[in-house]
């Protein structure tokens, strides 16, 4: 049962899940909000541009109804006049059309924001599966959409019925008024009716917007197993990371071991620590640590040094200090210059003696003096 509960999608979607859904075009959208914004914009546009529409459209209509004998008998002039009237008509409604175009572009982005998802344009042949289509038709989401459409129709129908019933006497009375007064009266009735319809759509949008956000959130919910898998993908599988780290360490160790034969001197503890030093007076300001290690690594450094006839010297205090205070590939600290220089000088003399360039073997140097600040016992402290 514990495994089954883990597979239930009860967890909130992670930021990565939300981002991935957005890339796939899955964002909250409300058709009711778009419908409300478009209708409200249309009503506001007609209200604000009513004077301009009346003047320009009235001029076009009067010009079209005027009879001109020259135009009637001249096809070319008739066509030119029709074109001029069409241009004037388009100019008359251009502000209103501009408002509607802007509204149509902005309204869908009010919920979910502006979105460009190329992945959603890719063909998905799974959507052509008839069985999957039937499943979607009879799904809980389709049932919810059906109930929402019925509720919307009922709300708008009831509002429309009430508006017509309450304004029926006023509309019949406007028919008996003078033309100008009657038209003004009818326009006021239409404006009031539109306001009620827009109010009903606003109510529907206020209910639909939270529902769409909730429905998308429910659809994107994740199980605990999903969260674990996502964490592995984002942070990396610990087993894979551990294997990569071990491989990197092995590679670094091989590169380090390849430097041991080039070393001038290997200092040991004698068993727990080993530090290989190299010095090139033409390229280095001070000797560098080219290899270091403890226990098995230290043993391998000593073996390689002996195989390649690199001098191995037991100097516990200096070996521990170099291991502690010098990173691989770095120059030794200034406080250890004297101690290391004495050992290197002894190694160079020893090489000359072995090569026959000296009469007697050089005396081994005394125990090096380690500054107190650089001394280390070899024990890690918290």
From TrEMBL:
**How does this chain sit within the bilayer?**
Multi-pass membrane protein
Alphabetically list the UniProt keywords: Bacterial flagellum biogenesis, Bacterial flagellum protein export, Cell membrane, Cell projection, Cilium, Flagellum, Membrane, Protein transport, Transmembrane, Transmembrane helix, Transport
Any Pfam family matching the protein: Bac_export_2
Show the ranges annotated as biased composition (Basic and acidic residues): 7-24
User: Which branch of life, at top level?
Assistant: Bacteria
* Gene Ontology process terms (BP): bacterial-type flagellum assembly; protein secretion
In this chain, the stretch annotated as Disordered covers 1-24
Q: InterPro entries per the record?
A: FlhB, T3SS_substrate_exporter, T3SS_substrate_exporter_C
TM ranges? 93-117, 146-164, 184-214
Cellular component GO terms, alphabetical: plasma membrane
Location relative to the cell: Cell membrane
Q: Which NCBIfam families match?
A: flhB (TIGR00328)
Main function: Required for formation of the rod structure in the basal body of the flagellar apparatus. Together with FliI and FliH, may constitute the export apparatus of flagellin.
Q: Which protein family is it in? A: Belongs to the type III secretion exporter family.
Q: Know the name of this protein?
A: Flagellar biosynthetic protein FlhB
